[in-house]
Specification:
- The chain is α+β, with helices and mostly antiparallel strands and 362 residues long.
- Helix 3 links the parallel strand 6 and strand 7.
């Protein structure tokens, strides 16, 4: 076990990275991104101002990183997250790894472990439960189908479930659009305006989006605030060119952002064609995608303006014609099962994909 904090080196060993290479030997896009790793495990990551990571590794077999800190709690008690989990198909090795982790956490008076979560929910988290995993998309949790069994053998149970809704036909969406567009006037409220998100607009509004994200998503499970500097690194210039400008939207009330829909093309299609991370942008997707798929990724409303779902419906009416024009398939990504957008997406979907977060108490 190797500890990483603000007083130590931030080096991640080759042995640690090699485990991922063993699991995905022919899938470079699923292996660790060295640039992302070097940024996350460095002094610029504000997590390390008070938090600590510990690396656990069984060479060429299995690995995980444990995150602890004052902001990591569960039911008002100290907890820990495990992330960057990868493993060969060996329950014995997984059990051994998590037994070592449990012993470490017990010494720290922590008896709850939750994951997979890479630092916090701004980064990759959850396991994919689909054995076949049709229609994979970029930033969807990708893992071998045996991972849930490894966690179960190690004493974990499901904590939260999430669903992606796959829509392969426009027929139901068009019926919905025709019904609600006829009622557009009664869904229009004084003071509200809408604007499509272009790269330049996103950058102009980035500071406001950061502030609103804490208001909108602050009550979400495992949400941890991040500094504007970190937010800018993750969601700045490069990110702005990933956004689909045709179907992403700000809603304003008297000039202030009160709602956001952020959508992307399925850049996984380009990754499979050999495009590098730095080559991903909206223009390259439109020029090279064979069958355009839209990922409906983020929906956020300030509570005072949600209007029982009316604002969301109004925003969807704004973007749906462009979605029909530019895309043939749609994925409503990684939604908590019980929220309103998920209930709406369920009406249109042809099939679903499931994911889970896991917990172990000891």
């Amino acid at each position: 076990m190797i500890k990483i904090n603000k007083n130590t080196n931030f080096e991640i060993s080759e042995d640690f990275l090699e485990v991922c290479q063993l699991i995905y030997p022919d899938q470079l896009y699923l292996q660790d991104n060295p640039l992302e790793i070097s940024m996350l495990f460095s002094e610029i990551n504000p997590f390390f101002e008070e938090g600590e990571a510990s690396i656990h590794l069984l060479k060429n077999k299995t690995r995980a990183i444990i995150f602890t800190g004052p902001d990591i709690t569960h039911q008002n008690k100290p907890a820990a997250y495990f992330g960057f989990f990868e493993s060969i198909d060996s329950k014995q090795d997984a059990i051994k790894l998590f037994k070592e982790i449990e012993e470490q956490l017990t010494e720290q008076n922590i008896n709850t472990l939750i994951g997979p979560i890479n630092f916090n929910t701004y980064h990759r988290y959850r396991l994919n439960l689909d054995e076949e995993n049709p229609t994979p998309f970029l930033n969807e949790p990708q893992n071998p189908k045996y991972y849930p069994a490894l966690l179960a053998a190690s004493g974990f149970s499901e904590l939260n479930k999430y669903v992606s809704y796959i829509i392969n036909s426009q027929e139901k969406l068009k019926d919905w659009y025709d019904t609600y567009s006829a009622k557009k006037d009664i869904l229009t409220f004084d003071g509200y305006t809408f604007e499509q998100i272009t790269p330049s607009l996103w950058m102009d509004k980035l500071a406001e989006v950061h502030k609103k994200s804490e208001i909108v998503f602050g009550d979400n499970f495992s949400y941890s605030p991040i500094s504007f500097e970190t937010f800018q690194l993750k969601y700045g210039e490069f990110f702005s060119h990933l956004i689909c400008p045709y179907t992403s939207l700000f809603a304003y009330y008297n000039g202030k952002i009160v709602g956001t829909i952020i959508n992307f093309p399925n850049y996984y299609d380009l990754r499979r064609k050999g495009f590098g991370i730095t080559d991903l942008n909206f223009k390259n997707y439109i020029d090279n995608a064979e069958e355009a798929t839209l990922l409906l990724k983020t929906v956020g409303m300030v509570k005072e303006h949600a209007n029982m779902g009316f604002l969301l419906i109004r925003m969807m009416l704004e973007i749906t014609p462009n979605a029909f024009q530019h895309y043939k398939k749609y994925v409503c990504c990684l939604m908590a099962e019980d929220n309103y957008p998920a209930m709406l997406a369920k009406e249109f979907s042809d099939h679903t994909k499931e994911y889970a977060l896991y917990i172990k108490e000891f």
